[in-house]
Predict the structure.
Amino acid sequence: MLSEFDIIRRFFTRPAPSAVLGVGDDAALLKVAPGMELAVSTDMLVAGRHFFPEADPEKLGHKALAVNLSDLAAMGAQPRWVTLALALPKANEKWLEAFAGGFMALAASHGVELIGGDTTRGPLNICVQILGEVPQGRALTRAGAKPGDDVWVSGRLGDAALALAHLQHRIVLEPREAAACLKALHTPEPRVSLGIALRGVAHSAIDVSDGLAADLGHILECSSAAAVVELSALPRSTALDRRLGQAAVRQALLAGGDDYELCFTAGAARRAAIEEIGRELRVRLSRVGRVESGAGLTVTGANGQPVKLKATGFDHFR
Ligand code: ADP
Ligand code: MG
């Protein structure tokens, strides 16, 4: 039977050469490079709330870190270190091996080091804190959108919502369609390089985790601005249009959640620069609307008329 300390030693102790001190003491020690600010973010994944308890542990390990990387991407920060607090119902070796494998593989691909955490028994719960660096004063925030800015979205929206509908047997997808959108749901690729490339280019940014309407809404609130977004300009897969009815497509694009794409705003003078960034990073970047003065988000349909939204995003307490 694995003890708490066996678990930490076997699965979560890895070299952390860029930290002064990593896993194994009462605290990790870090040195932030001169001229840099520390960007810190935490995201928790709760079984039965954010994922099915029987979810594939390797993908869960990936996703637990990916959602945190996505937050730093939205700040234009370079992820450096993570901590991992885990509550586990039991010490299941196979589960731990797969979970740690998924987590560490994504960490390695972003050069992120695991430097500490906590391990306890309890209902399955995964809490990751991520720390990154960003040059002083250059972080992207939700507060800088200006009237006249373009609104941009990376990648595609709605695939994770489509995957969820498939898993819940509300729709049937062809194997190829299913594979693509299940990948978006289970193993999203956080837009870290895009966030960094947008430093000094974008005026504001957020990662789309709760749905575009809610998350762009946060930018607008923090920036005291309004925006108009064109439904037809929102990037989506052909499967989304093919498999869902109009109202469901709209809902998936605007309030699906779990997209982990970046939504950002930038001056119109930056269009060519942004398109160049997209080509270089091989990320689809779509211009979907415009920031205006005022408050609130308007989404327009094919006829130019505003469309009505049902729920605008996920809220745990509503
Ligand atoms: P303490 O009793 O001081 O909280 P712990 O016994 O909980 O210390 O942890 C021992 C060491 O292992 C600490 O450095 C802690 O950061 C690290 N640690 C514990 N759980 C994890 C985990 N899941 N992932 C990474 N490091 C962990
Ligand atoms: Mg502890």
About this structure: Strands lie at 36-46, 78-88, 113-121, 125-135, 150-154, 204-208, 226-230, 261-266, 285-292, 296-300.
